[in-house]
Predict the structure.
Amino acid sequence: MIPTITAFECSPDRGRGLARDMRVRWALEEASQPYDVRLVSFDAMKEAAHLALHPFGQIPTYEDGDLVLFETGSIILHIAEQDASLLPKAAKPRARAITWMFAALNTVEPPILDLMTARIIENDKPWAQERLPLVMDRIRVRLAQLSARLGDAEWLEDAFSAGDLMMVSVLLRLRMSGLLDEYPNVAAYVARGEARPAYQRAFAAQLKVFTDRA
């Protein structure tokens, strides 16, 4: 049976690869796993049928027979557990790759999402311009730490894994901010992730949803 994921019918990112279904598409492409996509509208995401799949009314969801998952971290971990190219078979490298997945979601992504909130949702507040530099500095702290850990290595560990997939996906949200350019090795790391054929296939599939509806 081919798994089905859900994605925005009309994505706010206009097909730039930032919607969270992109992360799941990328993982499925890396695993050479065929999949179907069911597009949902913002209204449909709040209806009972979708809430039965995702109690918080978001995307993506993942359905494979009677297995239903939500949250990208959970979905990608499930996909990766079935493919050695995303999670090593050896116990210790496998645990390290999973640790990097958690680090991407729990340590690196929160200040990045805070930047998006500050620029899009709070930009009309009287204190917004004072807060923005503080938010950006918090991101710089994380980028500096990641840069030091990465050094001149190609990937976070010995080989590309689901940890890199998640970390690159998170960092791509900084593409338009200019912050990545301050850390050349991190920018190069992100570029290597984007250059992977599986990423390119996933990006093209997500972009096609937008262009077909434009």
